Amino acid sequence: MARRLASAVGLSAVLAATLVACTFGNLAGYEVQPCTASPATQAADDCERLNSGSAGNAGTCTPYQCDPTVHYCVQAPRDDDKDGDPSVACGGGDCDDGDPRVSSLRVGTPSVLASATLPISASDQLGFGSDGGNDPLLAFVTTSTGGQCLALAAAASKSTTAVTGCSVLAAPYDNLFPSQPYARSASGSPAAVFVSEAACGVGKLGFAYADKVAIESTCPTAGVARPAFAFVDGAQSGAVAYYASAARARVSPTDDCAAAVAAPLLLAGVDGILSTPALTLDAQPLTTQAISLSPPALLLRDGTLLVASPDGDAATLWWRGTDRSPGGSLAIPALKGARAIEMSTQSRGIHQFRLGIVAQLGCGPAAIHVAFVDVDTQAKTATLAGDVEVAPGGGATVWSPSVAWSDSRMTWLVAWLATGSKAMGRFVTPDGVAGVGPFETANGVLAAAALASAHTALAGTAGTQKALIDGPNRCP
């Protein structure tokens, strides 16, 4: 008995000595070390020093990180952007672990990217365009000394660039009283088309490039509503698609839907943008049966001008030369009852791409559908390639759909607005299968746009001002 007790005491002494040696003799290699609160990124983490050198944890899926509850370094799943969602490569759902705005968990409050210093009063006084890449360009009408002008707000993918004030249509052109603006950018300089109601109650077509001379058409009998713009030859010229309808008949995307009547869809050209710009309005409409509460979809791809719009009881895609010379058209019966359309492209080879054309089908509790069209610009052909329902009808009132293909995420992102001014979204796989969603990204939103970065740009309220804001972005 005494011998066994002595052995136990001896073993305890050995264990104690071993623990002391581990704790005090090799402090640098011990797994629990004190740290400050967890910072915004893994690279700036106080425990990152343990992930290099002899520790050998750099680049692994379980690096040392500071636990903010106990302030000690612990090994945990890699989460480089500290958004609470580990990287996909390490078992989490974050498809972009370098951007805290993106994760598979993101819902809730968006972040303000660019506040408007001047007020926006109505949804028909703002519109999203693009800087030509992944980033949104928001044009909005605001008050100037002599009348009204257009201000722009732009936000880069991971940083903020705000342009506010009367950057387009500044005096002496601020007496054109613009509405329904649509902005694009080329080489860093913005262009905008808009409806001018100066001395023309039904609306004239207006165009302005940067801070240069603004121009407007004569006052047409039918009017001008919901114009869209695309650069055609760099910044030398452009194309405009618009509806020949009184501007005020296309104000509200919800209240005016059921009462909207068919109108002609026309093209116009803008030449001499960098010198003496001039508008040329085509006399022959693409269709006379367009019923739409949003601008027609207008893109330039591979030297081909593409236009899509509601047309009669469905939708149609037209293609034209850069000089708007006749090309062809394709009816899209899957978009029956379309009342708003937007589109994006996915490259599929030389001279070949797939169009994703999203549409709001019907008014009120409408459905959101995407139709796919494969285009070969060399063969001058367009072929229907299927369709998918993104949001079923019969639920919330929906409007203002948009779509974007993301090369970096290999997915389509569809965005739209719903009852309560909520911004909604859903991913669609490359082969046209509805994926994650529908999910809510924000509320209190006036406009939304899906972006090629698979982000959703939103325009809405930030405090007492309107702002360009970045919706919480989810992973496919």
How are the SSEs placed, and which strands pair?
Layout: H1 2-25, E1 64-67, E2 72-75, E3 102-103, E4 111-115, E5 126-130, E6 136-143, E7 148-155, E8 160-161, E9 178-186, E10 189-196, E11 204-209, E12 215-216, E13 225-231, E14 238-243, E15 263-271, E16 278-281, E17 287-290, E18 297-301, E19 304-311, E20 314-320, E21 328-332, E22 338-347, E23 352-361, E24 367-376, E25 381-391, E26 398-406, E27 411-418, E28 422-428, E29 439-442, E30 445-450, E31 456-462, E32 465-470, E33 473-474
Parallel strand pairs: 3-33
Antiparallel strand pairs: 1-2, 4-32, 5-6, 6-7, 7-8, 9-10, 10-11, 11-12, 13-14, 14-15, 15-16, 15-17, 18-19, 19-20, 20-21, 22-23, 23-24, 24-25, 26-27, 27-28, 28-29, 30-31, 31-32
Task: Give the structure's gist in a few sentences.
With 476 residues, the chain is mainly beta. 5% of the residues lie in helices and 44% in strands. It has two domains: 33-85, no CATH class; 111-474, Methylamine Dehydrogenase, Chain H, CATH 2.130.10.
